[in-house]
Amino acid sequence: MKIGIDKIGFATSDLYLDMADLAYARHEDPNKYLIGIGQSKMAVIRPTQDVVTMAAAAAKKIISQADKEKISYVIFATESGIDNSKGAAIYLADLLGLLPRIRTIELKQACYGATAALQLAKGYIALNPETEVLVIGADNARYGINTPGEPTQGGGAIAMIISSKPKILELEHETAAYAEDIMDFWRPLGHSKALVDGKYSAGVYLDFLKNVWDEQLQKTGYQPQDYGALLFHLPYTKMGLKGLRQILQNASIEDSSRLLREFEYARQFNREVGNLYTGSLYLSFLSLIVNSPNIKSGERIGFFSYGSGAQAEFFSGILQTDYQKGLAGVDYQAILNKRQAVSVAEYEELFENHVFDVENIELDYQEDKSNFILAGVQDYRRKYLSR
Ligand code: HMG
Fold first, then answer.
1. CATH architecture for residues 172-323
2. pTM above 0.85, yes or no
3. Domain 4-169+327-386 carries which CATH code?
């Protein structure tokens, strides 16, 4: 039996900040952000949007009535949760109109969360092949104004349907995982912005990559030549490029140039959105299958998932014949192109108005044209609108 990704959807804010504008405001050379970090634009999240509304928007793009009847489990991965007790998946299931006879959970391990959700879903489908699992990876990456992490912010949501009839990707069995207790990036309770040891985190990312790549190589014998593309968690796209270069150190010129070429397609959307933490690896997958004219069904795709703290996993899947159908006909480049630019001053205001630990607020959502809206908070209860 095959198990894997049947459909994939993505949603982000309708607002963005141009990285060159941010660079000028921070007295940096724009090329530091555009080339050194590898980001062109950064999603700016409105106060009327959060992980629940973005997840609902991503899922709505792919869920049919038939899916609604088959989904029996919603696994919502996020490190930008909106409540310490109530899981975001409950709100999501309600906004999407899913059947009540389902399981819903929220789970967290920094940017690794969506991979944990995917692997849990794989095991669940093995036991329940007639059902489907809705996996979400949604986050709002926040480091703070005028911090070194600022150009690596962003946000958005990935939604994936995992089933035993995967149109997009069949997950392969072997995976290599590695965990170690380190402090590279964390967000203590009560903080709305992440704390990070940036340079250290980049080094640990590469060490963990070496660890899981070597183990997967030992388990499977797969070399760079066995992959049609190698994908990475992209906190900023230069980080993935460093990871790829590390893997390619001893690869042939043909394999290196092919995998570097595919990486450019795989980072295209991430360059325009920024870090969406746990969804980033899967946005890169979406970017590859939407943008690459070269990638073919039957090819093996390698995935490096990394979540600070830290947990890593390397796994792979085989691209399926009908993979284009799993995109549900959505034109993501057109959606990204239609976004509205904000000035640095507007971004800073929106950033400061982020709704966090607020007892009562009514939000003005007139300008937010999204299908799903956070309309306010009453007695610490979030009020969502669907339209
Ligand atoms: P920084 O210290 O301001 O930047 O912040 P820098 O001085 O290291 O410069 C960045 C790059 O730009 C360097 O390239 C420079 O050479 C280059 P590199 O040496 O890295 O290849 N540069 C230029 N290039 C062209 N033209 C120029 C120019 N000037 C400089 N004129 C840092 C960088 C990444 C540390 C910061 O942005 C940060 O702290 N970011 C957040 C942490 C992060 O993303 N870490 C990544 C690994 S951890 C991870 O992935 C997990 C995470 O997603 C969280 C989770 O799991 O939930 C973060």
1. 3-Layer(aba) Sandwich (3.40)
2. yes
3. 3.40.47.10
